[in-house]
TrEMBL record:
The keyword Chaperone belongs to this UniProt entry's keyword annotation: no
Lineage: Bacteria, Bacillati, Actinomycetota, Actinomycetes, Streptosporangiales
Source species of the chain: Nonomuraea montanisoli
Membrane-crossing residue ranges in chain numbering: 247-266, 278-299, 305-325, 337-357, 369-390, 397-415, 427-448, 455-471, 500-517, 669-689, 701-718, 730-750, 762-781, 802-821
This protein's UniProt keywords: Membrane, Transmembrane, Transmembrane helix
Designated name of the protein: Uncharacterized protein
Length: 846
């Protein structure tokens, strides 16, 4: 009887699978969306007009004039001063398109309406005449004047004028690329082009034979083919031999930073982690998967393979690793499993409803297939669990199996729609998010050594946010059919934020979060400050925060920005290593609040004796000379003070250099929060962070977290920071943080076109912020140590003493000067502080 039950159970499982396959095979392709029926609004800039190319050629004439000249002061008025380099040449390129046609031409009437001005001008000129690219550094966006129509003697002439500003280095060649017109049919078959080179000499003409060549004029005709003209500067003489400098500081710093960062990441894991076989296998798996994520940059046809690796193989590897590392299985209750199953059923019903509404399957076929699949799966589960003899267990397994069958059917029909290219746009992100969420769930479980329900919820929500904000998820039509005209893909700089790229950025964000979790796990005991793994984790996180994206590279004919490893990250590493020193053996760490209180009181008593001894020598000279004190009285008081000091020891005071009996993580969080609060007033200089998803938002928020990260380092490793008192440690911290912060502006501060006042203002802003944060943190830490000891702060810093007010007064003065400099700072200072968003790249005349 038992064998028969097993056979029946397997048979029902096969029936359920067969029903799912039958639905997939019977599914019909979903009809792609089209524009709504009815009278269409005519496109006022339409180039076709229902006529043939021969008619265009016979009735219309087109000419193009390109004038090269030196950009004057009036032309450069709107260009930020910091972008202009006086050592280079600023060039103004003026392009004039003229189109002559009969006055009764339909295109003349269309252009005369101009309902899509100004956006339609770019499309008309680029599609009709062909885009003209001018290679060189962009000084300002391309400007286009309104089209000018002139009608006379039965003909209409339309003139389009385009102005571009470029900056070229001495000896750099300028290339004018005349691209092929893309409008169909063509406005004209050929057009006459005239180039007035001015202070430039035509060097190469490719793709056409000029009809006229003069030093002041170059004429040729272009048609349906690309043409390029290369020009050289008249004032530059090319040497016979140029010294080649193959050394690149950017490359050297990038390689050096990558090596240092990789070393500290490996060190952060610790030797104990690498000794475990399961961890080494996991690292090898990640190392094999990482290169596949770069495939889309080289061969775009293999992009789906990268998606499978990132959203399928890597999550499976993470879950497998967590299952082997953690000693217990996830403690999910039956109610939680059934709740998740219910959510999956609701989602599956929604997807199946989409298949029915868009006629992927007839309603009767869909209901029949879903019912057979669910009932057969439930029956199979009952057959396999009947020998347990517990009715509720069999019912729960049946419900779980039925829900799983519906989910599998919905997923199979969705995959069929995906293969045919018509599917709900956000359904892909939904599936990818649910797959990617397994990575943070497993990672947090391994980091915390336990499965957490809260971590699952947070990981799923974070996974959705990595793929876009809720407003993006709820766009019109995102859960119906793809739009007839796809929208523009958002970008991070010049990097298109595809779901794959968002997943990669999410992994980087997750990696940084895991570093913080690792510090949290280490930071429960004071011994963590001496662990090489904790030090490596801290320095790795600090270096990541100071990585700055600068520049771009070209891969597979596409401009790809890279987070080039900058000198700021290197300086952050050196500053952290300089700050962290091995504590002196005489430093005794208190293990409790009572011990800390005793140490502080002993230190205060010792300070009182030292001050009393100094006061005795100061007043003793006058009183002995005046006869108010004898030498015996002086020696007696001196000996009593020295005896008291001998009992307390002559060693340097170390009570204010301890962790005060608090764990490193607690001290680090206090340092981070105080530093963040002190640096918030300066946040308005950089603007509010923004981003289209969680990863890009956090990436844009790094400038708010970098300096507070030094505060976290100060608190976490406080006993190891240079100095023996809170204020001396804070001054050392200020030196390290100031060097790191200013290193990011070195390239801007050495530019000769930036005025000295602007540079002073930048240094004042950065220096004022660092001083305010570090000195404020030192004062707070001094108060905190006294507060934990139950002593008033006035015993170490008397506000009535001018000397004790010197440090806070300095902070206030610096902050006031910074505020004044900020209000006086102009556009150049804003550009230096915020960074120049427009990278010097090849630009297109649009």
């Amino acid at each position: 009887m038992g064998k028969l039950r097993i056979v029946v159970a397997f048979g029902l499982a096969m029936v359920s699978l067969a029903a799912i396959l039958w639905c997939v095979v019977a599914a019909r392709p979903v009809v792609a969306p089209t524009r709504p029926a009815g009278p269409e609004v005519p496109d006022t800039w339409e180039l076709t007009a229902g006529r043939t190319a021969g008619e265009f050629a016979a009735e219309r004439e087109a000419t193009t004039e390109v004038v090269l000249g030196r950009a004057g002061r009036a032309d450069l008025t709107g260009v930020p001063a910091g972008r202009i380099d006086e050592r280079q040449s600023q060039v103004k390129v003026t392009i004039t398109h003229r189109l002559r046609m009969r006055a009764a031409d339909e295109l003349a009437a269309t252009l005369r309406q101009g309902s899509e001005f100004p956006g339609g001008i770019q499309r008309f000129t680029d599609d009709g005449f062909g885009a003209i690219k001018v290679l060189g550094a962009v000084l300002a966006p391309t400007k286009r004047l309104a089209p000018v129509l002139t009608t006379s003697a039965g003909h209409t002439t339309v003139e389009f004028r385009v102005t571009m500003l470029r900056q070229l280095q001495p000896g750099e060649l300028m290339e004018l690329a005349f691209r092929t017109p893309t409008g169909r049919p063509l406005i004209v078959l050929r057009r006459a082009v005239t180039v007035f080179p001015g202070e430039w000499t035509p060097l190469r003409v490719q793709g056409v034979r000029p009809s006229r060549e003069d030093p002041e004029r170059l004429e040729f005709a272009v048609g349906y083919y690309p043409v390029s003209v290369t020009l050289a500067q008249d004032s530059y003489g090319f040497p016979d031999r140029e010294e080649e400098d193959d050394f690149s500081w950017a490359t050297a710093l990038g390689i050096g930073t990558a090596v240092v960062l990789a070393w500290y990441v490996l060190r952060a894991m610790g030797l104990a982690w690498w000794r475990q076989t399961v961890n080494r296998e996991f690292a090898i798996g990640l190392a094999l998967a990482a290169p596949t994520l770069l495939i889309p940059l080289v061969v775009k046809e293999f992009t789906p393979f990268a998606y499978v690796i990132l959203f399928g193989a890597v999550p499976a590897l993470a879950v497998w690793h967590a299952g082997r590392v953690l000693p217990t299985s996830p403690p999910w209750t039956v109610r939680e499993v059934l709740g998740v199953t219910g959510l999956g059923v609701l989602l599956s019903v929604g997807m199946l409803s989409w298949s029915w509404l868009h006629e992927q399957l007839p309603g009767r076929t869909l209901l029949t297939g879903a019912a057979i699949a669910a009932l057969a799966a439930a029956g199979s589960a009952v057959g396999f669990s009947a020998d347990l003899g517990i009715r509720m267990v069999a019912v729960r397994l049946a419900a779980f199996a039925a829900g799983s069958a519906l989910a599998l059917l919905a997923l199979a029909l969705w995959a069929r729609a995906l293969a045919e290219g018509v599917y709900p746009p956000d359904s892909v992100r939904l599936v990818l998010s649910l797959g990617w969420a397994l990575i943070p769930i497993a990672a947090v479980a391994v980091a915390t050594r336990q499965w957490s329900r809260r971590a699952v919820v947070v990981a799923v929500v974070a996974s959705f946010l990595v793929q876009g904000w809720p407003t993006e998820w709820l766009d019109a039509g995102s859960w119906s059919l793809p739009l007839a005209t796809p929208g523009v893909e958002p970008k991070l700089g010049d990097l298109p934020l595809s779901p794959l790229m968002r997943g990669v950025l999410g992994l980087l964000l997750l990696g940084f979060g895991l570093l913080v979790l690792r510090l949290r796990r280490f930071g429960g005991a004071i011994q963590a400050i001496s662990l090489p793994a904790a030090e490596g984790t801290m320095i790795s996180g600090l270096m990541v925060l100071y990585l700055t994206p600068r520049g771009s590279i070209t891969i597979a004919d596409s401009d790809v920005p890279l987070p080039l490893l900058s000198i700021t990250s290197i300086v952050a590493w050196l500053a952290a290593r300089w700050l962290l020193v091995t504590p002196h053996p005489s430093v005794v760490e208190p293990t409790s609040a009572d011990e800390h209180r005793e140490l502080i009181r002993a230190a205060l008593h010792k300070r009182l004796l030292l001050i009393s001894e100094q006061e005795l020598y100061r007043i003793g000279r006058g009183k002995i000379g005046a006869g108010e004190m004898t030498m015996d009285d002086f020696d007696e008081r001196r000996q009593s003070l020295e005896e008291a000091l001998r009992l307390h020891g002559r060693d340097p005071e170390t009570a204010f250099a301890t962790a005060a009996g608090c764990p490193p993580w607690v001290n680090g969080m206090y340092g981070f929060v105080v530093s963040l609060l002190l640096s918030l007033p300066f946040a308005f200089l950089y603007g509010r962070p923004n981003g289209v998803d969680l990863s890009s938002f956090v990436f844009d928020t790094r400038y708010l977290l970098a300096l507070p990260a030094f505060g976290f380092l100060f608190g976490y490793f406080y006993p190891r920071i240079r100095g023996t008192q809170p204020m001396t440690k804070a001054l050392y911290l200020m030196a390290a943080a100031l060097a790191t912060e200013l290193s990011g502006y070195l390239s801007a501060l050495v530019e000769p076109d930036i005025g000295g006042l602007d540079k002073v203002q930048v240094v004042a802003i950065v220096g004022g912020e660092v001083a305010l944060v570090c000195i404020g943190l030192g004062l707070y830490w001094e108060w905190r140590l006294m507060h934990l000891a139950g002593e008033p702060w006035a015993r170490v810093r008397n506000i009535r003493s001018v000397r004790s007010l010197a440090t806070p007064l300095l902070a206030v003065i610096i902050a006031a000067v910074t505020a004044a400099a900020t209000s006086a700072a102009g556009q150049t200072v804003d550009r230096i502080l915020q960074g120049d968003e427009q990278v010097t790249t090849t630009s297109t005349s649009k």
